[in-house]
Structures are given as structure tokens and as C-alpha cells.
Write a structure and sequence with these properties.
- The radius of gyration is 14 Å and the shape is globular.
- The protein has 106 residues and is an alpha+beta fold.
- It has a domain of 70 residues: Alpha-Beta Plaits, CATH 3.30.70.
């Protein structure tokens, strides 16, 4: 169950039984499909970058998609699509917060 107060969800490329989800580029594919959903809506060329609401990343060697709650507010059907993708594929979902990279040490 996803808390309605969560601001970010991590959909991890691990099934609930701990197996790595395939294909290996699943996160990039999913984020690519969601690229049109962005602040201000789709614009020419927006398919060439990921939406700030659905970002592929790797955490601790595991492919993930970071899903931001703004997508739920602006495009509920798109939010449901991503959540149902995770559920249908038995992927682990974690409520979390993506922190910015630490500044380089001088």
C-alpha cells in the first residue's frame, strides 16, 4: 500500500522474492514512456528527456524508478499506470526521498 502523503516512491528492479527484474533497461523504458508527463505538459522535443516526475536511476546496484507525487496530482491515470506496472510485475516499492549528491570535497 502506498501512503497518500508520500512525496517520492522508489520502484526497485527487484521482485518481492528478490529476483532481478528483466529486461535490464526496464527503468529507462518505463521513464521514456512517461516522458510526456511533466510540468507544463508535453512540448516539442520533450520526448528527448525524462520527466522530473519519473526518473530512472540506480541505487546500490539496483535499477530503480523514482516516482514523484506531483505526477499523481497532475495525471492520476499516468500515476496509476506506473503503480500498476510495479504491482503487475511484483516489483518492490519503497517510500523514500531522493537526496541531492553531496558537494565535492575541497
Amino acid at each position: 500500500m502506498v501512503s497518500p502523503n508520500s512525496q517520492e516512491l522508489f520502484i526497485q528492479g527487484l521482485t518481492r522474492d528478490g529476483k532481478t527484474f528483466r529486461p535490464s533497461d526496464w527503468a529507462e523504458r518505463l521513464a521514456g514512456v512517461m516522458s510526456q508527463f511533466r510540468p507544463g505538459g508535453a512540448s516539442p522535443g520533450s520526448h528527448l528527456s525524462y520527466s522530473p516526475w519519473c526518473i530512472p536511476t540506480t541505487l546500490n546496484g539496483t535499477k530503480c524508478v523514482v516516482l514523484h507525487a506531483d505526477l499523481r496530482e497532475h495525471e492520476p491515470m499516468a500515476w496509476d499506470f506506473v503503480i500498476n506496472f510495479a504491482k503487475d510485475n511484483n516489483l518492490q516499492i519503497a517510500e523514500a526521498c531522493l537526496l541531492p549528491d553531496a558537494p565535492p570535497k575541497a
